[in-house]
Amino acid sequence: MQIDLNADLGEGFGAYRMGEDEALIGIISSANVACGFHAGDPLIMNNTAHATKAAGVDLGAHVGFPDLLGFGRRQMQVDPKELASYVVYQLGALAGMAAVAGHRLTHMSFHGALGNMAAADETLAEPLVAAVAAFDRDIIISSSSSQAIESAAARHGLRVATTFLADRAYDVNGLLVPRRMPNSVITDHDQVMLRLRQLLEDGSVTSYSGERIPMRTCSILLHGDTPGAAGMARDIRSEIERGGGEIVPISHLLN
């Protein structure tokens, strides 16, 4: 089995650092980098593009709402056309950093509230995915399970890498449970590993309400700001490799 292991990186701002980016880059195969709207700044983006290039890690844009104070995790009501411009702006910013670093943008993902809203709403997913396609049809969309995003991507000829969020709870429809709900973010190491083993063994996950639901995925995501993320990523990688699996970048899986 080949599978991608990815994490959200570059989520500091100015002098403020977040997460364990240096350690994670040595463990993961793909990185989703904040592009300055919900986190990140030009210097952090530039440094992360160079670091991922040196490590052979795929580089992706992690695009979100313009919400630095809320880390992009607060819902915002913005005209979809305006949102599409935000998406293109962020893709372009990281693509520029990638070009200077001799790297390339292989994928993108929608961050936080923007991602959750697009995943659950076809009328929002459509213009956002169309914007990605207009920017570059070779970009892979990395997304949690979402019929809305997958259908829009199919219409626009884009590839989707469905990613399993090891540290987030799912509802019975395979959508992420809102962070405001208790236990929607799973920080317990043993629980994360149990969920991973279940996914690897039979391709399922136990939903927030207790049902066992199928989870078709080619990638596993860890949030870079989760406490102990590097240690958890290291354990996830070891678990996969002990079972004979191979960690490969997202672009190698969907080439």
Automatic annotation (TrEMBL):
The lineage of its organism: Bacteria, Pseudomonadati, Pseudomonadota, Gammaproteobacteria, Oceanospirillales. It is an enzyme of class 3 (hydrolase). This is 5-oxoprolinase subunit A. It comes from Halotalea alkalilenta. The keyword Nucleotide-binding applies. The keyword Disulfide bond does not apply. Coiled coil: none annotated. Catalyzes the cleavage of 5-oxoproline to form L-glutamate coupled to the hydrolysis of ATP to ADP and inorganic phosphate. CDD domains: LamB_YcsF_like (cd10787). Keywords: ATP-binding, Hydrolase, Nucleotide-binding. The gene is pxpA. Its EC number is 3.5.2.9. It holds the Pfam family LamB_YcsF. Belongs to the LamB/PxpA family. GO terms for biological process: carbohydrate metabolic process. One of its GO terms (molecular function) is ATP binding. Gene3D superfamilies: Glycoside hydrolase/deacetylase (3.20.20.370). Forms a complex composed of PxpA, PxpB and PxpC. It catalyses: 5-oxo-L-proline + ATP + 2 H2O = L-glutamate + ADP + phosphate + H(+).
